[in-house]
Amino acid sequence: MAKILVTGGCGYIGSHTIVDLLANGFEVISIDNHARSSNYAIAAIEKITGTRIKNYEVDLKSFDDTLAVFQENPDIAGIIHFAAYKAVGESVEEPLFYYENNIGSLVNVLKCVQEFDIPHFVFSSSCTVYGNPDASPVTENSEVKKAESPYGATKQMGEEILRNIAAAGGANVILLRYFNPVGAHPSALIGELPIGRPQNLVPAITQTAIGKLPKMMVYGNDYPTRDGSCIRDYIHVCDIASAHTLALQYLLAEKNTDACEVFNLGTGNGISVLEAITTFEAVSGTTLNYEIGPRRAGDIVAIYANNEKAINKLGWKINYTIEDMMRTAWAWEKEVQLKESIVKN
Ligand code: WQD
């Protein structure tokens, strides 16, 4: 069975993707230095799949340490590269920290890909590369506008670096542009673990609902949308995960028509912030304590995907509804609280 290296394998999307890869017969190793993740994921993945994978606690900013992992695993058939920092606000305050980490790590991995002639590379990109689109749904050919943050710039640069490498005859590349990944594995054994106060909507909702946060702010209800709040394309993390497995299978079967191909990963449904909150309240049976506040700098009004290319070319299927996203996010939040209470006592 093909061995896949997942960088950032202990993170939110990385851990869910490893579960899906293992369920589809791949052998998996991970590189994750736990700068933004925790080792709980390895044990949780084992509980879900029955397989304990090896995680190399290596900082990808060190070329020598990264190379050593490849030297120990010369049979890597493909790579999925998740490892990156992704806090938009932090990237504005610390641009160099983001360029050094996100681009420096990617370049080190790609130097090893070249050294070991690894044929297949899947890159974790983001709808953030579209900036503030003129209209939605956006297709893969929609204009890539000037990045709204250094984080977004690192995703755009990452894509450009990979396009150049694929064109020069390096690895075959797939760029996966996630819309808004949310929710958690149905087992509630893995999920999102925001560091500090959650910036993203769904963890802010669940932490408010469970009482970790006294209330949450809705950042603006005066946008030109159906209810005044921003519209996004929320997509379950398990649907994002399955797309990565399909992307690798697509490359391994040599079905790719270009050396570098791009796919949008979204449901194609735009949901507003207030609709997301209403859905959460309905599935959780709770009433959320929120206030309408001022707009958040950098927020775009609306974006949602045209996902036909991933469905038609990768055979991607979306299995989770917005209700499932909220239900699994809530189950995960309750599981985390239970664990924290056990640790505290
Ligand atoms: C969604 C909506 C907020 C929190 C970012 C990155 C993107 C990807 C996902 C990495 C917005 C509103 C949020 C809150 C709120 N990250 N909101 N109150 O900004 O669309 O995307 O995260 O890949 O690249 O850009 O996601 O969840 O932060 O915000 O009202 O407490 O929820 O204003 O309208 P975003 P988000």
Shape estimate: globular
Distance, first to last CA: 43 Å
CATH topology-level name of the largest domain: Rossmann fold
Question: Average pLDDT value?
Answer: 96
Named at the architecture level, the CATH assignment of the largest domain is 3-Layer(aba) Sandwich
| SS element count, helices | 11
Bound molecules: UDP-4-deoxy-4-formamido-beta-L-arabinopyranose
CATH H level, superfamily name of the largest domain: NAD(P)-binding Rossmann-like Domain
Structural description of this entry:
With 345 residues, this protein is an alpha/beta fold. The chain has 2 domains: 3-184 and 235-267, NAD(P)-binding Rossmann-like Domain (Rossmann fold, 3-Layer(aba) Sandwich), CATH 3.40.50.720; 201-230 and 269-312 and 321-344, UDP-galactose 4-epimerase, domain 1 (Alpha-Beta Complex), CATH 3.90.25. Helix content is 42%, strand content 17%. It has 11 helices and 13 strands. It has helices at residues 12-23, 40-49, 63-72, 88-93, 95-115, 150-167, 201-210, 237-252, 273-284, 308-314, 322-344, and strands at residues 3-7, 27-31, 54-56, 76-81, 120-126, 172-178, 180-182, 216-219, 231-232, 234-236, 260-265, 271-272, 290-293. The strands form 4 sheets. A 7-stranded parallel sheet has the order 3-2-1-4-5-6-11, with helices on both faces. Strand 5 (120-126), helix 6 (150-167) and strand 6 (172-178) form a beta-alpha-beta unit. Helix 1 (12-23) packs across helix 8. The longest helix is centred in the C-terminal third of the chain and has 23 residues, at 322-344. The mean pLDDT is 96. UDP-4-deoxy-4-formamido-beta-L-arabinopyranose binds at residues 86, 88, 126, 128, 178, 180, 199-201, 204, 216-219, 230, 232, 273, 296, 299.
